[in-house]
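User: Modeling request: complex.
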Amino acid sequence: MITLFLRRAIKDLIQNRFLNIVTVTTIALSVLIVSAFILFFVNINDMIDSWKKGIRIMAYLKSDSSLIKPGDIEKKIRLMDGVTNTRFIPKLDALIKLQKQMKRQSSLFTTLKENPLPDAFEIRMTRQAVNNKKIEHLAKQIEALPSVDEVEYGQSWIGRYINIIHLFKLTGYALSCLFFIAAIFIVANTIRLVLYSRQEEVEIMRLVGAEDRFIKAPLYIEGLILGALGGIIGMLALYMTFFYISSNMKQHLASGFFDIRFFPHEISCGLILCCMFVGWFGCFLSLRQFWATNKRN
Amino acid sequence: MFGVYKHYGRKKALRDINLDIYEGEFVFVSGPSGAGKSTLLKLLYLGEVVSQGQILVDGVNLSRIFSKRIPFLRRKFGIVFQDYKLISSKTVFDNVALVLEAMGHKRRFIQKKVNSVLRSVGLEDRYNSYPLSLSGGEQQKIAVARAIIGDPKIILADEPTGSLDAKSANIIFELLKRFHRRGGTVIVATHDMELIRRNKGRIFYLDKGFI
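Assistant: Request completed. Predicted assembly structure:
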């Protein structure tokens, strides 16, 4: 029976090819837009992760803190929530590093009577702790330690940056939902058009003793096929666009700061399954309405 | 049929119809246009529901049938319409095969049976054609082929020769008579008195909804 339904579904798809091409194109475009957003966020997340790895808090110690052992301060900092790693940078090491960085202005250092740099701690955080509020809280805790003079963590740009990313994410979710709903309604309408164009055929099938499932099953299969085709075409279009853009970008982003990547197979398969659901659900909606208006006597 | 009435709003299409049709009978339902002939046939295959009264078909009370059983009731009938009611987007073969597909028969059986039925109505060379490319007579032959292929107990023919020339009408009627000779019940709704005169069968005359 399933082979028969499948055969009838394929025959019907070919017979109503114009309407079906419109449906597949609509689904493909919706998938292209939604998956482009997902791809964008996957890569943005990668970028955030690589930036998060670079985010650290610098705690500069008071100049008279030489009386306090760095080990004690380090222990206190390590006990704080969200801290993964701490590194003590003695002021002498900091000066040597600075001298290396400022080789051309080496004359500046010869005039120094004493080292102006303080001892410091470089503090790395867990991924979860890298958000504006948690960093701020952690920074305040560290600043409250008696031997800490000043704390620095790029306060302003982190906050603004994270807010922009959140805004992007929200916009992405909203647009994805909109396109998803639009795709469902377009599929439902297209299948409704197909049904109305075949109203007489449905009536004849009923007259010759066809059960409802005999009439409906091929239409559901058509919905699934349309969804799958739309999904695959959309994903292929996205992959080709991605391939073109990424090969161009790689030439400009040769620094290797982060790699842009296509999303994993699981997400691609998930998106195609979503499209199949869209096709099925669109079919379900239109059939429910069609059946209600053409109820069997 | 026992005390059957059918109303369309205020209009009364059938009034107090009482009749028995026996297995293997050839019956004509006659009368002028608008007398209620088509309505009477529609009530039998549940194309319409009665407003009042009871109808029994092969022991099944149509007023008490579950909607899921309606397709199985309809398989007891082969229906022939004046306007043929063929699916124009399907080939002759597919139109006829539809009945067996709906009944869940296997492909090989369907192929054999459709070929044999098309041969019996003289359309074996047209199985790949589309209905609209055929003449009225040929289209009605397909409709008859579709009606008999599921081995129904009863054939309902609503003005089967109404839009055909005399020669084609005779061929169609011969096919119905052949079905009857094999033991089937045939109910023909027609206003063609000449056709009734030329053929044997019990006649019910309908006028303004009364028998």
